[in-house]
Design brief:
Elements (H helix, E strand, L loop, with lengths): L6 H11 L3 H21 L3 H10 L15 H9 L4 H9 L11 H21 L11 H9 L9 H10 L4 H13 L2 H4 L2
Helix pairs in contact: 1-3, 2-3, 2-6, 2-9, 3-5, 4-5, 5-6, 6-8, 6-9
């Protein structure tokens, strides 16, 4: 495979390696935020979306920092996925040592933690509906270190800066991108 696979092929790969509904929905959330950023930048929407969809496909099987996302990158290489996609996925983890240089790489890092945090903020609402999520509540919950404690707030802040967006604007952008896909995300 010398070119980008179809979304259907990428989705099948995600489902092959990821059984958990939560991680599958996270992949879909990151995909929709990545597609929105591609549109904002005039970039290839499929390239951004498929990279987002597959960024954590190996995490369920190999969650340790020694393995993720390295194992996934090896699997993608064996299946002929493009090097730029594998590099972007490697760059989303600070522990890999792969610097983020392209818009694709920077956007993936910027949306990964934020999508998880927005999902957590939505799930504590009485309605569990992203349509009811207020941007201000996301900002307020970021200050509460006990809430969604596994989410790295520094990554959210530095990710927004890396793509040249004000933090508030980036949060609003990601929330809106996820709202547009609320049915698929179960939110």
């Amino acid at each position: 495979m010398t070119e980008l696979p179809s979304r259907e092929e990428a989705l099948a790969l995600l489902h092959e390696y990821t059984q958990g509904a939560g991680l599958r929905k996270h992949a879909l959330a990151v995909e929709c935020a990545m597609r929105a950023h591609a549109r904002r930048l005039g970039a290839d929407e499929d390239a951004f979306g498929i990279t987002g969809l597959l960024h954590d496909f190996d995490y369920e099987r190999w969650p340790s920092l020694a393995d993720h996302p390295f194992r996934g990158s090896e699997i993608l290489a064996a299946k002929g996925y493009p090097e730029w996609l594998r590099r972007a996925i490697l760059s989303h983890g600070e522990h890999t040592g792969v610097p983020r240089e392209t818009d694709l790489e920077k956007c993936l890092f910027a949306v990964d933690e934020l999508c998880g945090f927005v999902t957590a903020c939505t799930l504590v609402l009485p309605t569990k509906a992203i349509a009811d999520l207020k941007f201000e509540s996301v900002r307020k919950r970021m200050k509460d270190k006990a809430f969604a404690r596994s989410v790295n707030r520094d990554d959210i802040v530095s990710g927004a800066g890396a793509i040249g967006l004000d933090l508030d604007a980036h949060i609003a952008f990601v929330v809106e991108s996820m709202r547009a896909e609320s049915a698929a995300l179960g939110l």
